């Protein structure tokens, strides 16, 4: 086994989606006999890298080497044929076929597959059941067993332990240990830093599409008996978190720069206001569990979570898009039962979703997009409100939406689109605003404008719940912040003292040191 | 030990039955309609069974082809036009030919239209233009070709060829063995192909979740092209059946347009979801026969012919609503 | 387990549909069953038509029903009526055979394609009459309008009116349709005897009144025309003379109610014309022939109706066929003696079969 020859390596791989550079000049190497962690904050480029290695997307530039030989991987089938097997976050199983039929499709011998299934104590699984009817954790094990049955050299595991019980995760770890001993390799993408320390040998950290750090603890420190633990145990979790966050000047500094005190000053004094909106014990399956919070007039309440912790589901519950399996939503102190967002909007609870184009009518002009919510008022079906034009003009002015280039909303920049999404509620009126990552992929100047607007709205008496993936900005905009992990609220911090590090630590489900 | 094995077997059988209950229900509906029709008319015997089975052949073939394409997540609005094209080609070139030559022409047509429609599937797959748009366009093209090949009704085929599909050289009053054989052999072949071969399962896979199929390492394009090839071949078979039924060719556009609509109706009624990935070819077979049977049944019931179409539409809508309701209830309880 | 029980619900529901349908079995024969029995010699007659939404065909079906009622020999008329080709018509005819009808009257879609099913019906003792268009099946009765004569008689009248010389227009129907071909042949036959008649234009109206009107307007305003022969698009052509304020020329049309009305009312204004009959009542003729055959009167197997010509020279006969209560497209010549036994347009228009 040659140390110099990585089993799988990328050289200066780059990938852009439109104008957004997802990966830039990433060098990533996996050796034989190692479990390699691939870490990074949300949007750092982990999943893009995995997709390139798995053949889902081609790289724009750079090379891929397998066992020292340059390889071109155009499709998942190419990756499989050179010995790279991937278990994606969403199992790549056909829902309308049985497990057995899925195996036949992948040309996998059932005996080999059941051998691996039995490793996970699933030998009793009825292979004639439809994939659609099996629970997610079973499917991940089925997907993993299928990947193993392909007898790959490299296993790519994307958040494999996310839906697993502790017991099942344990079995995956012991499998990886054995895997390493056979001289094969595995890449583990995970948010669970404890796992990284326990099982991994090395760790590559991605930030903003670049590889910024490689943790390579001295191999000598491996326990002399060659026990199952990886060498990463000597690395502190906090070191990893710091590497993920980086020390460079972040956007938040830029946002603050122009008028350093403006946002902070706008924050409301700590005088208690009436409760505008509240959740009591909200649950939705296993995705959202027993969530309670209160949202006061004039307050911006932050929400922080890693990817896939149930925040999307929580927002769809709060906005009336989905009914909770238990728990209540209270508006102005009285309990509400909504069947559709229509009802929520009627109660003054409005949503600005993460994907702007979901709510906008991309082929219509700004003005028509702004007045859409007015259409739902029955008495105005036929009559156009007299003050409509005025209200729209006010909203455009207030948001300084650049309407010059655009007869169609889809031609606007992302920032201006987001302003339109907010502006329509300014036109229609609301009391509680639910914002889901409103500044994702938006330039600094517009970000600043949006935050200023949110503060202004709060000062005007609105209650705002703001989920954001940009942790540094919590301190600037929010009054309080809730941290969600695995479907639950695990922590609440005072935004003034919430640092990126304290938030990220809590978001990983770790205890925050005082 | 024995009992556990048997109960496991029963459980599998029951699960399979439950999973394909729609197809089963359509066959039960067909049986019920047959029994009912038998009581509506004075005599029910060989003549009637032959009549129903042979008259169903074109629609059943088209429904099988459409079902495969819909299962793969597509839809083919040109199938009726392909039927027309085959009808025109067959009637023109089979006229006054010996049986061996006629059979040879038939095989060439089935293979040729399979390849032709595979090409359409390839174009759809490469261009990314929606199936419905491409096949709408190609449908007009094939209809035009059909009229060009056979400008007015005419042409013919060999009596033995008519016997093959109708059980009689004159095309009427023959044995029901032939039409039922000609219906069930292709149906069962395509059914087995779709459920028990890799290419068949790939067709289900790309219709069920094409992203997952790609990630699982399947050749999505090949599966798509295959589904269109089968569709084209079945449309050719349907065109041959129309020539065998009438003994002449009839290239009118409306015949093809009607056939396309009926094939979609049969697929929907047969329990193949238009979103793809589910349903059985065999369900569409039964639904095709049901749609053909509706006309004589409604006539025998003395229903005004102008109302027959309304009743046909109500039946399809009613069955689909029952299905939708059940799905809704199931999702709510899950 | 929950899943399974849910899916069994589907099964149960579909079974319920099936059961519900079979439950109807008990009721259905009561509703329409009696006509199976030949009690008072009452016959059941099936009608197969494959062109829906066409006025001429609808009147044909109504004439069949009216004649069935007037004859008193028919218990019920089963109409199978849908758009289709030979494939659909074969299926429809087999359905009628299965219903045990005594006679079938059909307007065939194909001259030869239906022979096998027709012969099979005859072999089972069913009388089959093809109306309007012929079939070559052995043993079948055929009743048609003579399309060649239709054109020849009309054209001869026109050429005589013009004194054997002049410029005429031939306004045909749809290219390639047998009836149009036959009529064109008849027109040419007549033309052969009048060497000084010049055909200055020949158009295809598609048997569509608005198309014909447009063509007529273009012709009469741009050319010197002495007479017009039409394949049935007549009243809208006459209207164009009024629109363009051009003097009438002799015109040949069909027995359309609107045209007959014009011939009567505009005679004083100088309109000369001939209405040549192409009666949809050929259906009633077919019914009469079927009943003759059923009652053992051995009618001839081929009946070809020679068209009648009603001209402005005989306004009384025009008045006799004019039906003021009907639409412009109504074919006024409904009483075809000795075949029909109903009484005029009113009976046909009522469109009631026995038991309706």
From TrEMBL, chain A:
GO terms for molecular function: ATP binding; ATP hydrolysis activity. It comes from the Bacteria. This is Sugar ABC transporter ATP-binding protein. Residues 8-233, 270-511 form the ABC transporter domain. Pfam families: ABC_tran. It comes from Caldilineaceae bacterium SB0661_bin_32. CDD domains: ABC_Carb_Monos_I, ABC_Carb_Monos_II. Signal peptide: none annotated. InterPro entries: AAA+_ATPase, ABC_carbohydrate_import_ATPase, ABC_transporter-like_ATP-bd, ABC_transporter-like_CS, P-loop_NTPase.
UniProtKB/TrEMBL annotation, chain B:
Keywords: Cell membrane, Membrane, Transmembrane, Transmembrane helix. It is a multi-pass membrane protein. The chain crosses the membrane at residues 24-47, 59-86, 98-120, 132-151, 171-193, 228-247, 253-275, 280-298, 310-329. Its main location: membrane. This is ABC transporter permease. The keyword Nucleus does not apply. InterPro entries: ABC_transp_permease. One of its GO terms (molecular function) is transmembrane transporter activity. It comes from Caldilineaceae bacterium SB0661_bin_32. GO terms for cellular component: plasma membrane. It is found in: Cell membrane.
Automatic annotation (TrEMBL), chain C:
It is found in: Cell envelope. It comes from the Bacteria. GO terms for cellular component: cell envelope. GO terms for molecular function: carbohydrate binding. Residues 45-297 form the Periplasmic binding protein domain. Keywords: Signal. The keyword Repeat does not apply. PANTHER family: D-ALLOSE-BINDING PERIPLASMIC PROTEIN-RELATED. This is ABC transporter substrate-binding protein. It comes from Caldilineaceae bacterium SB0661_bin_32.
């Amino acid at each position: 086994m040659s140390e110099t020859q990585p089993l799988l390596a990328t050289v200066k791989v780059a990938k852009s989606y439109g104008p957004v550079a997802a990966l830039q000049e990433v060098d990533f190497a996996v050796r034989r006999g190692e479990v390699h962690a691939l870490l990074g904050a949300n949007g750092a480029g982990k999943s893009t890298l995995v997709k390139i290695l798995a053949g889902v997307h081609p790289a724009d530039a750079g090379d891929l080497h397998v066992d020292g030989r340059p390889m071109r991987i155009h499709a998942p089938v190419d990756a499989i044929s050179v010995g790279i097997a991937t278990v994606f976050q969403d199992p790549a199983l056909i829902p309308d076929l049985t497990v057995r039929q899925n195996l036949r499709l992948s040309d996998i011998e059932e005996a080999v597959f059941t051998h691996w299934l039995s490793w996970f104590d699933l030998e009793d699984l009825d292979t004639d059941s439809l994939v659609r009817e099996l629970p997610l954790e079973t499917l991940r094990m089925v997907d993993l067993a299928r990947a193993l049955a392909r007898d790959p050299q490299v296993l790519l595991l994307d958040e494999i332990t996310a839906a697993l019980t502790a017991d099942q995760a344990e079995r995956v770890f012991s499998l990886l240990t054995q895997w390493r001993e056979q001289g094969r390799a595995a890449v583990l993408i995970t948010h669970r830093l404890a796992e990284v320390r326990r099982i991994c040998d090395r760790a590559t950290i991605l930030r903003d599409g670049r590889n910024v750090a490689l943790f390579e603890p001295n191999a000598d420190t491996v326990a002399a008996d060659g026990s199952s633990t990886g060498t990463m145990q000597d690395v502190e979790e906090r070191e990893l978190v710091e590497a993920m966050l980086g020390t460079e000047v972040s956007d938040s500094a830029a946002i603050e720069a122009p008028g350093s005190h403006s946002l902070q000053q706008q924050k409301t004094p700590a005088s208690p206001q009436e409760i505008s909106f509240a959740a009591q014990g909200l649950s939705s399956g296993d995705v959202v569990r027993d969530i309670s919070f209160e949202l006061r007039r004039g307050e911006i309440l932050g929400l922080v979570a890693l990817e896939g912790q149930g925040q999307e589901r929580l927002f769809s519950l709060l906005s009336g898009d989905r009914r909770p399996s238990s728990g209540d939503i209270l508006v102005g102190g009285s309990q509400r039962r909504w069947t559709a967002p229509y009802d929520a909007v009627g109660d003054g609870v409005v949503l600005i979703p993460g994907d702007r184009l979901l709510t906008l009518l991309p082929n219509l002009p700004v003005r028509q997009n702004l007045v859409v919510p007015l259409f739902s008022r029955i008495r105005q079906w036929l009559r156009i409100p007299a003050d409509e034009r005025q209200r729209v003009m006010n909203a455009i002015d207030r948001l300084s939406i650049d309407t010059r280039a655009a007869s169609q909303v889809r031609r606007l920049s992302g920032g201006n689109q987001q302003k339109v999404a907010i502006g329509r509620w300014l036109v229609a009126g609301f009391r509680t605003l639910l914002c889901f990552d409103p500044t994702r992929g938006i330039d600094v100047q517009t970000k600043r404008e949006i935050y200023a607007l949110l503060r202004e709205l709060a000062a005007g008496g609105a209650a705002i719940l703001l989920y954001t993936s940009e942790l540094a900005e919590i301190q600037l905009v929010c009054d309080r912040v809730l941290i969600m992990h695995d479907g639950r609220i695990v922590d609440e911090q005072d935004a003034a003292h919430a640092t990126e590090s304290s938030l990220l630590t809590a978001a990983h489900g770790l205890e925050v040191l005082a | 030990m024995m009992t556990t094995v048997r109960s496991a077997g029963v459980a599998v059988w029951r699960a399979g039955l439950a999973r394909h209950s729609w197809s089963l229900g359509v066959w039960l509906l067909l049986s019920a309609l047959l029994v009912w029709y038998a009581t509506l008319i004075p005599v029910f015997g060989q003549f009637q069974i032959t009549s129903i089975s042979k008259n169903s052949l074109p629609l059943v073939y088209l429904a099988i082809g459409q079902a495969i394409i819909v299962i793969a997540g597509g839809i083919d609005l040109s199938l009726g036009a392909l039927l027309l094209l085959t009808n025109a080609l067959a009637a023109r070139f089979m006229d006054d030919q010996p049986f061996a030559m006629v059979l040879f022409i038939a095989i060439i047509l089935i293979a040729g239209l399979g390849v032709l429609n595979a090409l359409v599937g390839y174009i759809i797959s490469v261009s990314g233009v929606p199936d419905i748009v491409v096949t709408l366009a190609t449908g007009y093209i094939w209809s035009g070709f059909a009229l060009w090949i056979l400008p007015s009704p005419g042409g013919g085929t060999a009596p033995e060829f008519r016997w093959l599909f109708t059980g009689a050289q004159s095309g009427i009053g023959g044995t029901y063995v032939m039409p039922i054989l000609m219906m069930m052999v292709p149906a069962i072949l395509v059914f087995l192909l779709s459920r028990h071969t890799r290419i068949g399962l790939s067709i289900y896979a790309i219709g069920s979740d094409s992203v997952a199929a790609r990630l699982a390492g399947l050749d999505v394009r090949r599966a798509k092209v295959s589904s269109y090839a089968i569709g084209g071949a079945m449309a050719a078979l349907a065109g041959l059946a129309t020539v065998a039924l009438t003994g002449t060719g009839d290239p009118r556009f409306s015949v093809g347009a009607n056939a396309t609509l009926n094939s979609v109706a049969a697929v929907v009624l047969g329990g193949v979801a238009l979103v793809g990935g589910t349903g059985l070819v065999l369900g569409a077979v039964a639904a095709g026969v049901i749609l053909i049977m509706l006309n004589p049944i409604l006539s025998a019931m003395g229903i005004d012919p102008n109302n027959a179409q309304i009743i046909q539409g109500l039946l399809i809508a009613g069955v689909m609503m029952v299905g939708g309701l059940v799905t809704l209830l199931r999702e709510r309880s899950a | 387990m929950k899943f399974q029980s849910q899916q069994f619900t589907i099964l149960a529901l579909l079974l319920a549909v099936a059961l519900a349908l079979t439950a109807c079995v008990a009721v259905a024969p009561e509703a329409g069953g009696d006509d199976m029995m030949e009690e008072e010699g009452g016959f059941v007659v099936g009608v197969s038509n494959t062109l829906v939404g066409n006025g001429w065909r609808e009147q044909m079906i109504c004439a069949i029903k009216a004649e069935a009622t007037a004859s008193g020999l028919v218990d019920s008329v089963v109409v199978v009526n849908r758009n289709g080709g030979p494939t659909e018509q074969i299926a429809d005819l087999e359905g009628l055979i299965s219903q045990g009808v005594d006679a079938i009257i059909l307007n065939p879609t194909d001259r030869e394609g239906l022979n096998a099913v027709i012969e099979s019906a005859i072999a089972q003792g069913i009388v089959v009459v093809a109306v309007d268009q012929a079939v070559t099946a052995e043993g079948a009765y055929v009743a048609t309008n003579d399309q060649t004569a239709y054109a020849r008689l009309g054209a001869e009248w026109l050429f005589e009116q013009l004194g054997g010389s002049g410029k005429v227009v031939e306004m045909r129907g749809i290219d390639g349709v047998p009836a149009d071909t036959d009529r064109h042949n008849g027109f040419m036959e007549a033309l052969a005897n009048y060497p000084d008649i010049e055909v200055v234009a020949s158009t295809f109206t598609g048997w569509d009144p608005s198309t014909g009107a447009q063509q007529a307007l273009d012709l009469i305003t741009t050319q010197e025309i002495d007479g017009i022969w039409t394949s049935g698009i007549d009243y809208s052509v006459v209207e164009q003379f009024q629109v363009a304020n051009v003097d009438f020329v002799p015109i040949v049309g069909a027995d359309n109610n609107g045209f007959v009305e014009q011939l009567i009312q505009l005679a004083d204004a100088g309109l000369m014309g001939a209405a040549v009959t192409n009666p949809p009542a050929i259906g009633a003729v077919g019914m009469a022939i079927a009943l003759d055959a059923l009652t053992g009167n051995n009618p001839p197997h081929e009946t070809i109706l020679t068209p009648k010509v009603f001209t402005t020279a005989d306004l009384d006969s025009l008045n006799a066929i004019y039906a003021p209560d009907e639409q412009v497209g109504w074919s006024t010549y409904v009483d075809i003696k000795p075949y029909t036994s109903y009484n005029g347009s009113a009976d046909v228009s009522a469109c009631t079969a026995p038991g309706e």
